[in-house]
Amino acid sequence: MMIFLLACGDDSGSITEPSDEYSSSVVQSSSSSKTKKSSSSSSAKSSSSKKTSSSSKKVEQSSSSTNRSSSSVASSASRSSSSSESLTVDPSTVVVDSIIDSRDGKTYKTVKIGTQTWMAENLNFYTPRSYCYNGDGSNCVKYGRLYAWSVAMDSAGTWSASGKGCGYGLTCSPTGTVRGICPSGYHLPDTTEWGILFNAVGGDLVAGAMLRSLGYSFSLEYSSGGRDGYGKYFEFFGDVWFWTSTGDGNYFAYSTHTEFRISGMGLLSNQKEYAYSVRCIKDESSNDSPSSSSTIAKSSDSVAPPLSSSSVIRSSSSISKITVDTSTVVIDSITDARDGQTYRTVTIGSQTWMAQNLNYEVADSYCYYKDSDKCKKYGYGRLYYWSAAMDSAGKWSTNGKGCGFGLECFPTEPVRGVCPAGWHLPTSAEFYTLYYAAGGINSGLALRASTSWDVGSVGRDKYSFSALAAGMRNNYDGMNKCEYSDEGKAAFFWSSSELDPDQAFYMRLYGSKNRLDITYIYRKKGDAMSVRCVKD
Hints:
Blueprint: E1 4-7, E2 27-28, E3 35-36, E4 49-52, E5 58-61, H1 63-78, H2 84-87, E6 95-100, E7 107-113, E8 116-119, E9 130-131, H3 137-143, E10 146-148, H4 149-152, E11 186-187, H5 191-200, H6 207-212, E12 226-227, E13 233-234, E14 239-247, E15 252-259, E16 266-271, E17 275-276, E18 281-282, E19 296-297, E20 330-335, E21 342-348, E22 351-354, E23 365-366, H7 372-375, E24 383-384, H8 386-389, E25 423-424, H9 428-437, H10 443-447, E26 470-477, E27 481-487, E28 490-500, E29 503-510, E30 516-517, E31 522-524, E32 534-535
Antiparallel strand pairs: 1-27, 2-20, 3-20, 4-5, 6-7, 6-19, 7-8, 9-10, 10-17, 11-18, 12-13, 14-15, 15-16, 20-21, 21-22, 23-24, 25-32, 26-27, 28-29, 29-30, 29-31
């Protein structure tokens, strides 16, 4: 990664402020210029794919294993319902029970949410290559053990043959459920089963908050952390990961992840040698009615009150979860009446997006490394502080007025922000609709452009979204130093959704990963990133 450190003075050059009044209409190209994208254009493939975990350690993978994983996981994700709202389970119907692991006599609380029965505590069954955080046994008692993926899968086949041979450096395709390290009658959940749970509690954007609330009795702990392949423990009292049984090639597998400061919960591909927590789910064939003596049907007065709107990013009811056929994509263009610049647009399902990064010059916007060619010739567009992206000054609309660094704001959606008239800065929910439209967990590969990315990281651009690896500008040390980084390696796009007065959410695409990161990805509002506008 090439990083440039320099003084963080204004490098935006001379700025010609637009007049207070201008044509409010966005000049749309004639209908004859619209292009319906042929599905054959999605056939281009990158020759290789480099994947990395949340750490800096990297492993080379063949494109064949990545492509296999992409298709299998995407299809798995697409099996989830297109309407999380209709599947949301009433917390008053949740049933609490318990099981005893006959192997060591430990008792675990369980909870039935909708059609699924989950362990409501992290597994704490001792086996080699399982760990207590920091080697402290009291952490196992409180938070359960941390397991390498091969151990979670029971790669040795000690308890069943379903996960035998599934480990680090090995690609396996187990059929049916994988018992793994779980007690008899339970198994290690796959990505689809986690997706069903997310839908049952309101969707990806609120799953973390709902599963840690009293209402669903899932007892999500934010204190389990993890252990990397070098034996280093990390993120205690902050993050939680749970292994799934879904692999991602020889060296990676999928886990769920959330953080204590956010409401969302999602899926990540991480190195198999990392050690994470395990939550087991009951086999369908053993879904017997629990004994009446130990069953507690939650009364309405024991249900936690609904979360306030300020603690939820966006309602998931506005998110479509339907994958869009690439042959239905429509390409068009708009002209920004403020400066006459024309941008390609693309309609993907119900949304119309700018298919190029915004390049409208305002205060607190920058060209990568002060190079004007990066803005225009390279097509990167400008990098904007969040306040500039939101139009904190209220120049173009009042919806984002006053939204900036150090300020908590409650904007009226949609927020036009710095976008042309008739367009707005996307919310996290709108990015999520794009995420599902492009195939779900591995949509990053489908949305990346076939140019600007480092060798081995080029995208397929199946939907003509053409995300460029324009990098970002990070305020490294207040206003004294800044760094430009990740050109050729990553794309970053601001959303209008904030986390707190100092940080806001954004969409991120990495060349070394197929996935698209949205829900729990946030940065300082003082960093500068690209803007993609979506049509009102």
